[in-house]
Amino acid sequence: MEALILVDIQRDFLPGGALAVTDGDAVIPIANQLQLHFDLVVTTQDFHPANHQSFAANHPGKQPGEVIQLDGLDQVLWPVHCVQGSTGAEFADGLHMDKVAQIFPKGTDPEIDSYSGFFDNGHRKATGLGDYLKEKGVTKVVIVGLATDYCVKFTALDAKQLGFETVVVPDGTRAVNLQSDDFDKAIQEMEAAGIQVVHSEALLNG
Ligand code: VGL
Ligand code: ZN
User: Fold this and answer.
1) With contact defined as beta carbons under 8 Å apart, do 120 and 109 qualify?
2) Coil, strand or helix at 110
3) Is the beta carbon of 149 within 6 A of some atom in ligand 1?
4) How far apart are CA 144 and CA 172, in angstroms?
5) Is 106 an active-site residue?
6) How far apart are CA 163 and CA 122, in angstroms?
7) Residue range 129-140: average pLDDT?
8) Is the CB of 46 under 6 A from ligand 1?
9) Residues near 61 by Cβ (< 8 Å), separated by ≥ 6?
10) pTM for the whole thing?
């Protein structure tokens, strides 16, 4: 059994959003087309309380992009984004949701961030996604969404570590690119971990 995982395709990560990813909306048609090829589709949702400690605004004097220590972990500070109940936390207009079997919220604990759809950044708590996929008999996951260099990368690394055959679709992702080569670095890091990097065209025609 194969599953398609849509990572954080939410309004705040699209052009005009609070944490806009350049060209982020380009992943929507690819996510929609790929869904037609899968029997199981799930999505993660970045879903922070307003007092989340990853928000620069919650650290007086700090700016987005600065790095702090949060409970022993390096934490990049972000603009306020994907706040529970806000429109920015909603899924992208145009993203097909009718086939999505389950939504896995993450980043809900104000004290720790969660880039991966499986675990928080300290690997302290699971979201339930791993157990859910195993219960469904999933052995292979294909991952698209936002952003390549954060939530896609860490979701893929955890999927691989949990024993799933893991494929990331590079053109079905876009990066934050705090540094201009962060997309390339993230792809290299995933490949080095044994994650397959397969262009959407190869999956759609395969
Ligand atoms: C993300 C930064 C902060 C992501 C989420 O979805 O990649 N990046 N929160
Ligand atoms: Zn976030």
Assistant:
1) yes
2) coil
3) no
4) 5
5) yes
6) 19
7) 98
8) yes
9) none
10) 0.98
